[in-house]
Amino acid sequence: MKIVVDSLISKLYESEILELDPNMEIIVLNPEDHTNPAWGDVPEVDALFLSYQFLFAVRDHKHLFEPMLEVAKKAKFIQSGYSGMDDPFLQAVLKETNAIVANASSIYGKPMANYVLAQMLRWNKRIDLHIELQKEKKWMPNGGDGELTNKNLVIYGYGGIGKEIARIAKSFEMNVTGVRRSPVTCEFADEVKTPEDLMDMLPFADFLVTVLPDSEHTRNVIDKKVFKQMNPQSMFINVGRGSAVNEADLAEALNTGEIAAAALDTTRKEPLETESPLWEANNCYITPHDSAHSLMSLPRSFNLFLENVANLKDGKPIKNLFEL
Question: Is 2-107+294-314 a domain of CATH 2.60.120?
């Protein structure tokens, strides 16, 4: 078999690759330089690992877009290091190559679930208020609600990441409802319902978390109708695509007290424009799309790639296969 990896992956994991197949031909490319070695000299290969190193290089250096796409066209299988597939380069890969493509959505559940629980605790324990009081040298006990026990959590977008959020939430003894288009049973959720049931759940939800992809079915599904139906003491958290949220409606809901707080790791346009009303909306906590960041992401994404190379070699199903 022949595979293409970047220079960092080769340096860190060459021994693991050769342990899988001692005869594996490893083609190593420098993500920052398409001339040394020449990307154009890459032959037909069995697999390409589009690691963060490759994807960031293509994003930050426009002249690398076409050379990398030409490499992708020579691969039978492509493993992306990204969870989603809406990146412009990955969209080009889907449209212009004949490769089997897999994403890495399964590896980001743990850091993203940690983020969601951190934001819920941040609000419930009034951490930001304590920080402000400390700056003013004021000793003023204010513990908020105190704990997450028996709080009602609704997770809209109940896939792998949503299930990991539910798993950790249950360790806090929360009541968890998953929402997805095709309901399934899951040991971590008390129940799983359809989007048609969402509005009936909102008045009783303490937290609404969205983990939705970008699609024609999900754009602007979280709007003023949703916020008006929510509990005024509730918190909204988005770790899915920003296109799911009507940002003007969210800012209004926060400023008028329709909901109490929001935490956004993604926005419709990134970076978030300086004139966005969300920056100054009441109790709106914004992070720059980094909830999935973890020191474990690189080894996890490589292990997924290696597992899929083994599956390809043995004729087994590809994990995280992306299907249009």
Answer: no
